[in-house]
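Private note to self, pasted from the team thread so I don't lose it. Backbone tokens:
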């Protein structure tokens, strides 16, 4: 019987790195997808090998390369491939009035089209397994300053539910929607504190909270088509305006 293995897209940086390390701790060999972050990928791979797990770095540019080639490379290297974790993401802010076709194409290709095609080819390549898509708790909102990005992530959320139906029971598909966990480096401490004020649990999240969500989805065989929001309740803070919270 082959050793379990996971293909993690965007596994060299940010949340992808944490997911790779957590999966290695859970006994998975890792096919680590990378585009430009080769140096970081080598560092992650070294850490995974130190855990006595195998790790292969696989290059793929989601704007030009074929997703099927990435799946086939992962399957050849790790015949026990049974998990696809779509963590790679493209992010660029712009309101609809300033959104050009090129931005839409980039955001949708990385955040939606490629995960869909990877899911399709993964399902063709394996007998059974799981797909976990990393989404964003912003899909609960209509934040038009991030129009192309957020529309692509909303589409990914719907694709997660749709694919869960199509590929069940052989492939179990779910998603994780992180909140304020690893803010972008340009975010100021004042901004982060302001965001925390809007989180019912009044705290910033930790990557370990997302790792716990990952383990839950991996280990509960009766969960499918779900998007687990790990955001301190931020995404349900949609009380809106009404007479009792109106102040003149």
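Design output:
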């Amino acid at each position: 019987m082959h050793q379990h293995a996971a293909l993690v897209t965007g596994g060299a940086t940010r949340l992808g790195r944490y997911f790779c390390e957590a999966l290695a701790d859970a006994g998975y060999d890792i096919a680590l997808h990378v585009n430009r972050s080769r140096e970081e990928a080598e560092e992650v791979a070294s850490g995974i090998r130190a855990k006595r797990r195998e790790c292969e770095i696989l290059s793929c540019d989601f704007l030009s390369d074929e997703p099927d080639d990435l799946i086939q490379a992962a399957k050849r290297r790790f015949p026990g491939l049974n998990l696809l974790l779509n963590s790679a993401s493209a992010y660029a802010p712009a309101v609809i009035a300033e959104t050009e076709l090129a931005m839409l194409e980039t955001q949708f290709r990385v955040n939606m089209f490629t995960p869909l095609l990877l899911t399709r080819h993964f399902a063709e390549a394996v007998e059974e397994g799981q797909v976990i898509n990393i989404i964003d708790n912003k899909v609960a909102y209509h934040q038009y300053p991030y129009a192309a990005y957020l529309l692509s992530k909303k589409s990914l959320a719907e694709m997660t539910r749709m694919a869960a139906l199509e590929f069940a029971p052989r492939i179990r598909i779910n998603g994780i929607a992180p909140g304020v966990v690893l803010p972008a480096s340009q975010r100021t401490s004042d901004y982060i504190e302001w965001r925390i004020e809007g989180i019912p649990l009044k705290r910033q999240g930790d990557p370990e909270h997302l790792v716990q969500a990952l383990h839950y989805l991996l280990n509960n065989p009766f969960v499918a088509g779900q998007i687990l929001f790990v955001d301190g309740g931020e995404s349900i803070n949609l009380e809106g305006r009404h007479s009792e919270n109106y102040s003149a």
